[in-house]
Automatic annotation (TrEMBL):
<dbReference type="InterPro" id="IPR035476">
    <property type="entry name" value="SIS_PGI_1"/>
</dbReference>
<keyword id="KW-0312">Gluconeogenesis</keyword>
<comment type="function">
    <text>Catalyzes the reversible isomerization of glucose-6-phosphate to fructose-6-phosphate.</text>
</comment>
<dbReference type="Pfam" id="PF00342">
    <property type="entry name" value="PGI"/>
</dbReference>
<dbReference type="InterPro" id="IPR001672">
    <property type="entry name" value="G6P_Isomerase"/>
</dbReference>
<dbReference type="GO" id="GO:0006094">
    <property type="term" value="P:gluconeogenesis"/>
</dbReference>
<keyword id="KW-0963">Cytoplasm</keyword>
<comment type="pathway">
    <text>Carbohydrate biosynthesis; gluconeogenesis.</text>
</comment>
<dbReference type="GO" id="GO:0006096">
    <property type="term" value="P:glycolytic process"/>
</dbReference>
<keyword id="KW-0324">Glycolysis</keyword>
<dbReference type="GO" id="GO:0048029">
    <property type="term" value="F:monosaccharide binding"/>
</dbReference>
<comment type="pathway">
    <text>Carbohydrate degradation; glycolysis; D-glyceraldehyde 3-phosphate and glycerone phosphate from D-glucose: step 2/4.</text>
</comment>
<dbReference type="InterPro" id="IPR035482">
    <property type="entry name" value="SIS_PGI_2"/>
</dbReference>
<dbReference type="GO" id="GO:0097367">
    <property type="term" value="F:carbohydrate derivative binding"/>
</dbReference>
<keyword id="KW-0413">Isomerase</keyword>
<comment type="similarity">
    <text>Belongs to the GPI family.</text>
</comment>
<feature type="active site">
    <location>
        <position position="415"/>
    </location>
</feature>
Length: 429
């Protein structure tokens, strides 16, 4: 049974692409990934390696939080929140009332004073837990948000505040780990050999996802299936490797932007997570596709014109799910004053699907190369599968470009500048 299908619609500029030219390089990369131990490759087998005890611990914590809080504040930025936020958006229903459940709020991913002020004010009548997540333990946004929310927790809960703070950080080192040990906060480990943007299937993602009411066992089951399926060395049988090769080939032929497109708004944070994954993994040494995204059909009415007829620097990757569990039908209207009765035998999903097909055709005819990734169902199993698929494809993609998928040296440049400016005595205007 295939869980994920990859297909393409390429115009004449790409007709002569031969996958098998990449067989040898892929095979070398495949073995390199299997064998390296000094790199941050712990995520490769993480879905298989996570123990039942670790999953139980997360379930127990999640139950405790749900019993004692109205809000879980997840403090983190980049890889320390995007994965969990992506899964929450994709699988937890929109517009549901929060009175009977807990709200999972992802905070500490900006430096806005008004955002922080309003956040604290919004907590006055609500009970909360804090889950601070940082692999390094020193990220500015996360650290200052934690300082504010730690103080506020003490104001609200006194001695008991420490029971409401959970720290997720590197298993071996870091400032946050030291703080947690000194203060007696409970800790969840991020394995040392897993970097931030590959950490979603560790407690980084699993605790917030579980509190959001999503079945983490199913997420892990989907990811485990992907570990097995996508460990196939033969390029023709491995969809992650094929996706990596397609991207590389398009990049080599001059395309500079990959536009990830979906027609379900709940996937918009999967786009955000994907952007960080590919952007930080590939964008170095003056190389790399620029990862961008669109939410259709909304963005057809803003960026659609550019994609169709603008500078031909991009290709599009459509992400879709064959079966969606919910739908809405168009009511029949006798008057037909809005002239929509021709659609009344169709549902929203029908119309959405047809508009996706129409968009693919139009963009293809406009000269945009198209990759299509389709999964069976929008559920926890397939989301787990998809996220692992992207991580595996991303690592292969970066190696094809001869860059290290697991570092982010460029990040230091702006961090240092900000730190230097903040250390200056004068206030920068
Ligand atoms: O988990 P940390 O160490 O706080 O890092 C958060 C994010 O910041 C980055 O270092 C980039 O600034 C990402 O690589 C990472 O996901």
């Amino acid at each position: 049974m295939t869980h994920l299908n990859l297909s393409t619609k390429f115009n004449e500029r790409l007709f002569d692409m031969d996958f098998m030219n990449f067989g040898h390089s892929i095979s070398l990369i495949h073995h390199h990934l299997e064998e390296v131990e000094d790199e941050l490759t712990g995520w490769l087998k993480q879905p298989l390696n996570i123990t039942a005890e670790e999953v139980d611990e997360i379930h127990n914590l999640s139950d405790e939080i749900k019993e004692n809080a109205d809000v879980l504040l997840v403090i983190g930025i980049g890889g320390s929140y995007l994965g969990a936020k992506a899964v929450q958006e994709a699988l937890a229903p929109n517009f549901t009332k929060k009175e009977n459940g807990i709200e999972v709020l992802f905070v500490g991913h900006n430096l806005s004073g008004s955002y922080m002020k309003r956040l604290v004010e919004s907590l006055h009548n609500r009970d909360f837990y804090v889950n601070v997540i940082s692999k390094s333990g020193t990220t500015l946004e996360t650290s200052i948000a934690f300082r504010v929310l730690r103080h506020y927790s003490i104001e609200r809960y006194g001695q008991n505040a420490k029971n409401r703070i959970i720290v997720t950080t590197d298993s071996e080192k870091g400032l946050l780990k030291e703080i947690a040990l000194a203060q007696g906060y409970r800790m969840l480990d991020i394995p040392s050999n897993i970097g931030g943007r590959y950490s979603l299937l560790t407690p980084v993602g699993l605790l917030p996802i579980s509190v959001a009411g999503i079945n983490i066992t199913e997420i892990l089951r989907g990811a485990c299936q992907a570990v097995i399926d996508l460990n196939e060395e033969d390029l023709e049988k491995n969809e992650a490797y094929r996706y990596a090769v397609l991207r590389y080939e398009l990049y080599s032929r001059g395309y500079q932007v990959e536009l990830l497109a979906s027609f379900e708004p709940c996937l918009s944070y999967i786009h955000e997570w994907w952007k960080q994954l590919f952007g930080e993994s590939e964008g170095k040494e003056k190389k790399g596709l620029f990862p961008a995204s669109v939410n259709y059909s909304t963005d057809l009415h803003s960026l659609g014109q550019y994609v169709q007829e603008g500078n031909p620097l991009l290709f599009e990757t459509f992400l879709s799910f064959k079966h969606l569990s919910e739908d809405c039908h168009l009511p029949f209207n006798e008057l037909d004053d809005d002239q929509l009765n021709y659609l009344s035998h169709r549902s929203f999903n029908d119309i959405n699907h047809i508009s996706e097909q129409g968009t693919v055709l139009a963009h293809f005819e406009g000269g945009v190369p198209i990759i299509q990734i389709e999964l069976e169902r929008l559920d926890a199993f397939h989301i787990g599968y998809l996220l692992y698929f992207f991580m595996k494809a991303c690592a292969i993609s970066a190696y094809l470009q001869d860059v290290n998928p697991f570092d982010q040296p460029g990040v230091e440049a702006y961090k240092t500048k900000i730190r230097d400016l903040l250390n200056e005595k004068t206030i920068v205007s």
